[in-house]
Specification:
binds 5'-deoxyadenosine; five-stranded mixed barrel; 34% helix; six-stranded parallel sheet; OB fold (Dihydrolipoamide Acetyltransferase, E2P); 13 helices; binds iron/sulfur cluster; 19 strands; Transcription Regulator spoIIAA; alpha/beta
Amino acid sequence: MKKLYIETLGCAMNVRDSEHMIAELNKKEPYTLTQNLEDADLIIINTCSVREKPVSKLFSEIGVFKKKRKAGAKIGVTGCTASHLGEEIIKRAPYVDFVLGARNVSKITKVLEKKHAVEVATDYDESNYVFGEFRTNPYKAMVNISIGCDKQCTFCIVPVTRGEEISIPSSLIIQEVQRAVANGAKEVTLLGQNVNNYGRRFSGNIEGAQNFTELLQEVSKVEGLERIRFTSPHPLHMDDAFLEEFANNPKICKQIHVPLQSGSTEILKRMKRGYTKEWFLDRCNKIRTMVPNVAISTDIIVGFPGESDADFAETMDVLEQVRFDTLFSFKYSPRPHTAAAEYPDQVAEAIAQKRLAMLQERHKEIQKESMLSQVGKKVEVLFEELKSDGRVAGRSNEGRLVYVSGSEELLGKIKKVEVTEAKLTQLFGVVV
Ligand code: 5AD
Ligand code: SF4
């Protein structure tokens, strides 16, 4: 059997794209997955271009692939960096056999047949709607509900790499969820770059759910499905109807990502985020009031062009007020084809670094307190991984990583766990 080595960078959509490529390859001829580069007949790197660092590392990484690969092994570059660099990848690294953009992953078996194939178009391609049935995790399935993004956040390269936003008809989404559940999934994560903008554009008149709240209602009717998550939502589209559904639908996990980006209304304007600091705080307050044990995560960029000390202080203020349970924080990284890269008032690296450290340090204290507050509580855990030391790991409804001692009998089951100990990113407890 042929062997496939696949490295996946970036977001959940990339992880799902990798699963889809594996499924498509297997339809044609069976592959086994290998972690060993030297054994592989096919080497794929599924890239991310959201920040510059991984992009600049790409060429040294594929250089290693070239050196270590066995004779005749093919190398493919796929995903977001493939989308925005296209042909340039083959020009700079002629040993790369194919380049396949993030919106073109359904063509994986086609590009394998052609030397130096480059497929990076971002026009509508409905063959992308139905994804293959390969799942990395048997208990948790990821399901795409939309492709691309129509927002024009001035820092973000995604609209360039993944193209215009289009929503997948809910009938297809429901079928995919049903298939996943029939194959053992208990939980589904609905995926989209702007997931709660579902229904923005369909290709033609489509029956069924017309917006995200309706889609959540439809998906939650799937029998046997126990948990629903979704990523990534946009704070602007968190209307009251959606918050009601989030709070009151028992299948929806009480974990929500609310990407702030900046706490300064002025910077949010320059980012073209479409909301103010007040709107963001109002949404988070509402979520916390409606769902007291909710876990809120966020993304924050520091050092965006024009960010002053006063702007950064607004971000720290939001951190203090919302007390995020999880924070993903980044230094601003200028990206090609984005408006902010051309802004004249770029922030010095040293200042951005200082702000990042301050933000992360304060968040760590908040996170510690938030995790400690879980001790003594009973949480519902879906167990998914048996560790070698006799412990079983799973995620609480609120998305926290929980360990108990136990055996494989727990795998795929949802159990109540009493939390007895907390570390910064892990909880420990006993099944009750
Ligand atoms: N620089 C730094 N961080 C960025 N992100 C997106 N674009 C950039 C950029 N140019 C961050 C945002 C987004 C997350 C996925 O990555 O916070 O929410
Ligand atoms: Fe990275 Fe964005 Fe592409 Fe996901 S969509 S892989 S985060 S650039």
